[in-house]
Each structure stands twice: as structure tokens, then as C-alpha cells.
User: Fold these one by one.
Assistant:
Number 1:
Amino acid sequence: MVSSSGCIGYSLHGCGSNPLDARVDRLGKTLIFAKNHAHAQVISDRFDKNYPHYRGTFARVIDFRVEYAQLLIDDFSNPARTPHVAISVDNAGDAGKTCGN
């Protein structure tokens, strides 16, 4: 799991290469799982800082706190529409807490 902003920036840039290089059409549809909403927002903010020309459209946080989350999921499912990077919260760790056991 990537947690610090430096590691997030490194992960977004890859190992010395730029995944959003102008020679490439675009990064394929990508799903990133964050540990919570705040972590997802840090990843989104870092993406926007690294790629200001894609700010707010190419990578989006999609979780229960976001208005129109279903619309974003539908757009993410369409290869021709943004967002191309969905940043979601991994709720697997909370599954046992919501089962009513």
C-alpha cells in the first residue's frame, strides 16, 4: 500500500518513466484502492499536482462520500469517457464489522 505523498508521486510516475507521456495515447483504465477516504483524496491531489492538465477529470475519487458516484462508475466503465483512473476505498477490512456478527 502506498501511503506517503513521496511514494504516491513515485508510484504515479513509475520507475523513472512517465505513464502519461505524450507519446502514449493515454493510461488505460486503472483502479486504485486507498485505505480510507482521506488517503484516496491524497492520491487524487497528488495526481492533479503531477498532471495539472488533467486536473479533476482523469483521476477521480469514487466512494460513498462523492456525489453522483454511480454516474462516475458508469463513466469509468466506458473506455471513451473519463475518469480513466478510479480511486476507491478498499472496504474489505470492514467487511466483518458490517456482517451483523
Number 2:
Amino acid sequence: MSTSTTLQPESELLLAVVNATDAPGLASDHVAILRGLGYTQATATDGVVTSTTTAVYFADDLRVEAVRLAQQIGIDESDVRPRPSEPLTLNGVDADLAHRGGGSRAMSVAE
């Protein structure tokens, strides 16, 4: 588990990239970008419902890692949330972090 001073490396985190839009292939496009940022265990999946908002969800004690991810992809820290109890994905993917892309601005990689 993570502490406030020790971050888990991106490559060790299971990351679900959840497409919560009607745009096919969006999550797969984002996975390619995230793997380039070091999230080598990123997996594309479809969301249970469509959404107009984008968020980063975290499990257990991984809030700091979720904030790091949000900063890397241009998502405001106010959109970093604990993983909800209801499923985010159609296929039940379980992950340390989940990036749910919704609306027209699902991801903007920070330079």
C-alpha cells in the first residue's frame, strides 16, 4: 500500500480506462497514451453507463497515486474520488485506479 511519502510506480498499478461515452475506441486510445506515461498495466473497458463527467477513482490507500494520474492527464483534483461500491465497468474489471472518461474532454495529457 501507498503512504503520503512513497508513491507506487505507475508500472505497478492496475489501471482501468473506462469509456463512459458513446465514442467507440476512446478507452483504447487513452490506454496507448497512458502506457506511454508508464502505466503499463492499463486496460481499456466500457462503462456501465455513459457520463458527461470525467473522473479518476482510487482503491484503498491510493489517493496520492490517483492525484498524480489526474495531474498527468489534465483532470482537476476535485474529480479524484474513492472508488464507488457499484461497478464502473461492464465486464467487472477490478483495478487499483480507474480513469472514467466522459463528455467531450475525457483526457488532456499534461505536457
Number 3:
Amino acid sequence: MNIQRRIALTAGATILATAGVAAPAVEAAAAVRPTATASSVSCDGWKSRRTDVFGTNSAGLKFNVCWRQVNGKSQASVAVYLWDNRKNKLAFVNVTINSWEHTFTWGNSAHHSPKMITGWHNGDVVRLDLGQY
């Protein structure tokens, strides 16, 4: 069985990306995931994105998505660093792995956040919504 994993990242907008459906966003679709045991983990490598609000680099994100199979089920884990580049603002990234969802925030413009990790969650669809408020 060929299963394709999807990663979608948006800056300041919300999209839905599922297997086989393309959305208007910065999207990276990885190759077919190997079927393996939980001990075999593959990661996509670190990627960076930022938001541009009125021509400014207001929020930044560096992320890495890892994949594994456990008892025949696909699982994903996301690690993120956030940058808040504007004072009195709060950078956030909303991470969704299938139906699991969590929002990470960071509000220190002096340096980036510590590494924040979602842990492993069932699913092969990952969505990252980056923004600032």
C-alpha cells in the first residue's frame, strides 16, 4: 500500500491539506513512507518560514517533521522553534496532525523559543499555521 504524507504550512491563513488534495499554500509533499517498525523513524529535515506583515519579517518558524509506523499506523511528530521579531506581539504556530491540534506561542523578540515538540500522534497529514497577534 502506498501512503503519501503531506505537510502544509501557511503564513497568516488557514488551509486544509489532506492526501490527494492540494491547497493554496507553501506545501511540501514527501515521498512514499517506508513501512517499518516503531524503531525506524524518518525525518524530513529542518525547514524555515516567516510571515511578512506590511513588508516586515514579523514571525518566523523553523520546523522538522518526523514519521514512523507503529502497529501498522502512521504517526508524526513535529519539532518547532518560533521567532517573534516585533515587540509587543506574540508569534504562534498551530500544529495539526490529523485531528490532534496544539498551539505553541512565543513572545520574546530578543531570541527564539526553546525547541517545542508535539510528541507522536496518529496520522499522516500535518498542517502548520504560522501567525502573530
Number 4:
Amino acid sequence: MRYCAPLISNRSNTIMETIRTKLSRKKRKLVITMFFGFLILLAGMIVDIIGIIPIDWIWLLIIGGGLIVVIPNFLLWFKMPCPLCRGNLGGAINTPSWSWKIKWKLGIPSEIKFCQYCGVSLDKEIEH
């Protein structure tokens, strides 16, 4: 998948970008947040096994890390709207497929070309 940098149009210096780029940026932020939440959760589990910190603080790490994993995952599935029709694209964007490579976990796969609700191309440029 190639990255499309935002372009400046001739009309009053508005920044243009594709729908795919906008959704990829949002998805990338949420997946990276989930990764760090998983690291916090894992650190809490390891500290619990080793027994360095009192038990009260370990549960804060484990529950906090778990929430940091669950909340972005919920947002990925249910709060990824098409910028034009506001239809939820989370299910289509996050459904795994054997043809997808690991680099597409942080972006929108090129196999998805249109919004399933309004039919607009994801490569259409919109204002930022």
C-alpha cells in the first residue's frame, strides 16, 4: 500500500487527502495505543509473577493495561465512519484475510476500494 501525502489544493490553501489515508491514520493511532496497552498488561503480569510491587498496585497495571487494549479495539470495530456518509466501516476494515500482509494491520487494505454504504471510492480526495 502506498502512502498518499496530503496535497494542498488551489482553493484557499485547504489540505486534501484521500479517505483511505484519513482512515489509515486513525487506525494506526488506535493499533499503536492497543500495543502499548498490551505491553502495560504484560508488565503487570510479569511484576505479579516476580512479586516486586505490592499486590494493590499490580491490579492497577493489569486493569489499566486491559482497558487500554479493550477501548481502542472497540473504537476500531464500531467507530470508524466513512467521512462522507458516516456509515461504520470498522467491520470491513478490520476483518482479517489470508491475503493481507502484516504491514496492512496498521492501514487500510488495498482490496477494500469502496465504502459499503455510499459506494464512494476510498481513494477520493476530501478536505482534511
